[in-house]
Amino acid sequence: MVEVKVISKLEEKEGAAFNVLSQVSSTWAIPVILRLGYFEVLRYNQLKNTLKNVSSRSLSRTLSSLVSSGIVSREVRNGSPPRVFYSLTERGTELAELLDSMSELGIKWDSSEPDSETIEVSVAGSPPA
Q1: 83-88 and 72-77: which strand pairing?
Q2: What is the pLDDT of residues 52-62, one digit of tens each?
Q3: Is residue 70 predicted with pLDDT exceeding 80?
Q4: CATH 3.40.50.970 for the 2-100 domain, yes or no
């Protein structure tokens, strides 16, 4: 019976991880989140200028999606013309920290040889291969 609870918890975690990944799976989501994590607050054109080869349409769609997901905050300030500022929400800041750690891991992996050690794992109820 413990196995069923463990599997259920693992499935819950898998679903949650897939949910997070689906929100950052577009081409420009991760670069946008990392830049807003670094610069904190950027106007649209400032953000666009930090990204190579992003079209206005792609950036607008990415920002809209990230705002809808509660990852990015969009603030319109009065003026002529009105100015729009983007920043990370608390959720976005957590995600930026995770992405930054993943980036560091990727850099580490790129600069080292993969482990050649194989580890066998046996799950209760199933024989080892």
Answers
A1: antiparallel
A2: 899 999 999 99
A3: yes
A4: no
